[in-house]
Design goal:
Elements: H1 4-18, H2 26-31, E1 33-37, E2 61-62, E3 72-76, E4 102-106, E5 116-120, E6 129-137, E7 150-156, E8 162-168, E9 181-187, E10 194-200, E11 209-219, E12 224-227, E13 237-241, E14 265-266, E15 276-280, E16 306-310, E17 320-324, E18 333-341, E19 354-360, E20 367-372, E21 385-391, E22 398-404, E23 413-423, E24 434-438, E25 466-470, E26 475-478
Parallel strand pairs: 2-3, 14-15
Antiparallel strand pairs: 1-11, 3-4, 4-11, 5-10, 6-9, 6-11, 7-8, 7-10, 12-26, 13-23, 15-16, 16-23, 17-22, 18-21, 18-23, 19-20, 19-22, 24-25
Keywords: Signal
Length: about 475
């Protein structure tokens, strides 16, 4: 006989597939996804659904016409023809939903904020959650209009809307084709209720047009063990690899200087070749299809190096492998890096698509979590985006991996910078006394302040030359009971 619990969990899955899921308590927590809003699908250009059908509110006004004006929005299944500067005919992000709708917004002024407000109840205190959405600039490249820039906020509704954490997307780039990027923020609530907000940082009326899709709240891992007491560590950053800086185009440092390995072969002179990489302070000028002379991502490092890769085949995987020990079992961590497609717009080459993986103990160990970047878009200027994955380790030793999902030689060239592992938030349970070990100078560094949670374009700078790791901590099991 099927139990009531099993029936409830099946119902959550079915609701998730329709795109309308609210906070459904413990059943959704056990499945990992608390809610996922895909906005449904249909044959009409404009959906007659309203924000209340998806359990959120907005201060923008809904329009059911082809023409969406400043301060207004629509749920549409393609970008309409009324704006010549928009990506006319472009579709939503959700896979395998014919006629899928998206949340198209012509961003208004401060009185129209927030764009999105979702109140969720029955959260589990001390458990790591991730709030995320796919967002895109609907304005075509070359329009030179104001770029959208939104802020993700988490606030505690039962504590006078106290801000838990926030992060911004940065300017959403104009690209040749409408390109979706995932932006997310991790947090650990200290109460059972929270408001999830999307707020614009820009109030320009010329441009500032965006689309949002696949808005999700999920538990960082399906199984979470919590540490027993309050964490008192000084910093949330476990390591940060910026690759150093120098006057020579190619660095003579090797992956071992940064404590990682790769199956790509290092080149110390131009150009890179298929299955090779270089640590460079600007993109090579010898490849006519690349963003020649473009610089690394790290802020305020003169001649800063980046990891430039001409991605190879399966035998060249992984791109990046980093073994780290002394993690706290059950604590929420974030593994992230900044990526850029080094191919200039319009070439129609294979786009890089990288998978971030976290595995227990060794490279072929049990998979803890994985996530792909999706196609990294070609843009008029080399554009950096942060991609990340949150996880709760089930052992104190894990392997952090980057692997290519694409094996084509024509294109598939990327740069990686500012690779980081950090604790998602200070607002978690556990006692994890820091243990510091010295590493090579100017290679890996710890953050000296407490950065907020996951951002897709936020930069972090650091000058220390130590790597802080945690010793094992006492733990108790959490079953997501409220």
């Amino acid at each position: 006989m099927v139990s009531t619990t099993d029936m409830l969990e099946l119902l959550v899955v079915l609701l998730t597939m329709t795109g309308i899921v609210g906070s459904v308590g413990n059943a959704s927590h056990k499945l990992g996804t608390v809610f996922l809003i895909t906005f449904g699908n249909g044959s009409n250009l404009d959906s007659n659904k309203t924000p209340s059908d998806f359990n959120f509110t907005t201060n923008h006004s809904q329009q059911h016409t082809d023409s969406i004006e400043s301060g207004n929005f629509g749920f549409v299944n393609k970008i309409a023809k009324n704006r010549s500067s928009w990506h006319i005919g472009a579709l939503d992000h959700t896979k395998d939903d014919d006629g899928g709708y998206m949340f198209l917004v012509d961003v208004g002024n401060e009185s129209h904020q927030p764009l999105f407000n979702y109140k969720v109840d029955n959260l589990s205190r001390g458990v790591c959650y991730e709030f995320s959405a796919y967002i895109t600039n609907v304005v075509k490249s070359g329009a030179k209009q104001a770029k959208s820039n939104v802020r993700l906020e988490i606030r505690e509704t039962d504590k006078n809307d106290t801000l838990i954490t926030q992060t911004s997307t940065g300017d959403l780039p104009e690209c040749s084709n409408m390109s979706w990027s995932k932006y997310g923020i991790s947090f650990v609530p200290t109460s059972t209720s929270a408001a999830l907000l999307v707020v614009s940082n820009v109030y320009e009326t010329m441009g500032n047009d965006l689309a949002i899709d696949d808005i999700e709240l999920r538990v960082c891992s399906d199984s979470v063990d919590q540490c027993a007491e309050q964490d008192t560590q000084e910093s949330t950053s476990m390591f940060l690899i910026t690759f150093g800086e120098g006057s020579s185009t190619y660095s003579n440092k090797t992956p071992s200087d940064f404590n990682f390995t790769t199956n790509h072969t290092q080149n110390l002179s131009t150009p890179t070749e298929f299955g090779h990489f270089g640590l460079v302070n600007k993109v090579s000028g010898n490849v006519g299809t690349w963003h020649n002379d473009s610089l690394d991502h790290t802020v305020n490092d003169n001649g800063g190096y980046m990891f430039l890769v001409d991605v190879g085949e399966d035998i060249h995987q992984p791109l990046f492998s980093y073994k780290i020990i002394n993690l706290c079992i059950g604590l929420c961590y974030e593994f992230s890096a900044y990526f850029a497609n080094v191919v200039i717009a319009g070439r129609k080459y294979a786009k890089p698509d990288v998978r971030l993986e976290v595995r227990a103990t060794k490279e072929d160990g049990n998979l803890i979590a994985n996530r792909s970047t999706g196609d990294i878009p070609e843009c008029n200027n080399m554009t950096w985006s942060k991609h990340s994955i949150s996880f709760s380790p089930t052992s104190s030793l894990v392997v952090l991996l980057m692997l290519s999902n694409v094996n084509q030689q024509n294109g598939n060239d990327l740069a990686i910078d500012d690779i980081e592992l950090r604790v998602c938030s200070r607002n978690h349970s556990g006692f994890c006394p820091p243990k510091t070990s010295t590493t090579s100078a100017a290679t890996v560094s710890t953050a000296t302040s407490s950065p907020t949670s996951t951002s897709t374009t936020t930069t972090t700078t650091s000058t220390s030359s130590t790597t802080t790791q945690h010793s094992k901590c006492r733990r108790k099991r959490s079953y997501f009971l409220n």
